[in-house]
């Protein structure tokens, strides 16, 4: 009887680990999306419009830290026009969680965006916490469909 009770207790303690375990597809998605996040930040700095066109979904909602929103088209245009400028983007924290059998990912993290140098050589760093939602399109691959950020104290 004691052995049965002990097995039951151990089983109840271990069960949540199995219930919330990620599938192999979820685990693979986490690795893919983490790499894509780093690639996207690099593309924003380098103004690599081909990469940006590929990774942003057509229905993107990009909410900046000051509250204004862009679509895919208007955000990429803001980079072209110099309204959104990135000298450097450093990742302080990056957490990816995958869902829906590896077809949906929620990303949150902290980054420091440093503006390009001004004529006097000075730069302006901004520390942001952010949330991203990515979905995996059968034809297009991973697509960022939501970006939301908030400025943090330096």
UniProtKB/TrEMBL annotation:
Secretion signal span: 1-21
All copies of domain DUF4440, residue ranges: 33-144
Recorded superkingdom: Bacteria
Keyword field: Signal
SUPFAM superfamilies cross-referenced by the UniProt entry: NTF2-like
Gene3D superfamilies reported in the protein's UniProt record: 3.10.450.50
The protein's name in its UniProt record: DUF4440 domain-containing protein
Organism listed in the record: Hymenobacter cavernae
């Amino acid at each position: 009887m004691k052995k049965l009770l002990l097995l039951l207790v151990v089983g109840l303690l271990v069960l949540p680990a199995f219930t919330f375990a990620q599938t192999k597809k979820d685990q693979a998605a986490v690795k893919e999306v983490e790499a894509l996040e780093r690639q996207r930040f690099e593309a924003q700095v380098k103004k690599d419009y081909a990469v940006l066109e590929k990774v942003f979904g057509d229905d993107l909602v990009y909410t900046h830290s000051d509250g204004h929103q862009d679509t895919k088209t208007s955000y990429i245009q803001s980079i072209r026009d110099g309204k959104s400028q990135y000298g450097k983007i450093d990742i302080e924290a990056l957490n990816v969680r995958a869902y829906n059998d590896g077809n949906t990912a929620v990303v949150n993290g902290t980054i420091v965006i440093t503006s390009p140098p001004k004529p006097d050589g000075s730069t302006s760093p901004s520390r942001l916490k952010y949330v991203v939602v990515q979905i995996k399109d059968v034809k297009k691959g991973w697509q960022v469909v939501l970006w939301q950020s908030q400025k943090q104290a330096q």
